[in-house]
């Protein structure tokens, strides 16, 4: 069926596929947290960051139903599909993981999924 070299190549290919699958499963189980850096004004666009703060204001965009959550000196953009069903209010303490983007000259964090935000309601603290 296969020559010796073909069998060896096929086994190596199977081994690489198993290793990549295992690495994917391990990294997916870890989540973004171990890889995120604390947000600062020096954070570069495209960098995965984490920030924590008290919600000062929330607004809904005019188009698309996206949310913008304002902390003390930072805004967090929440796309509509992520914002759907999200229960966040002024005064809540949040921790958010996302990617830095500069928008109209200001840095903001873009969330990618509902798992990227932890909300601790003001009433429960």
Task: Summarize it.
It is built from two helices and eight strands. By secondary structure, it is α+β, with helices and mostly antiparallel strands. The chain has two domains: 1-30; 36-124, Beta Barrel (OB fold (Dihydrolipoamide Acetyltransferase, E2P)), CATH 2.40.50.
Named CATH topology of the largest domain? OB fold (Dihydrolipoamide Acetyltransferase, E2P)
The count of DSSP E runs of length 2 or more, i.e. the number of strands, is 8
Coarse morphology? elongated
Mean pLDDT across every amino acid position? 91
* Radius of gyration over C-alpha positions, nearest whole angstrom: 21 Å
Number of domains: 2
Q: Termini, distance in Å?
A: 68 Å
What would CATH call the class of the largest domain? Mainly Beta
In CATH, the architecture of the largest domain is: Beta Barrel
Stretches with pLDDT under 50, minimum 5 residues: none
Number of helical segments?
2
Report the major sheet.
Answer: 8 strands, mixed
The H/E string reads: HEEEEEHEEE
- CATH homologous superfamily caption of the largest domain: Nucleic acid-binding proteins
Helix content: 10-25%
Category by helix and strand content:
alpha+beta
Strand content: 25-35%
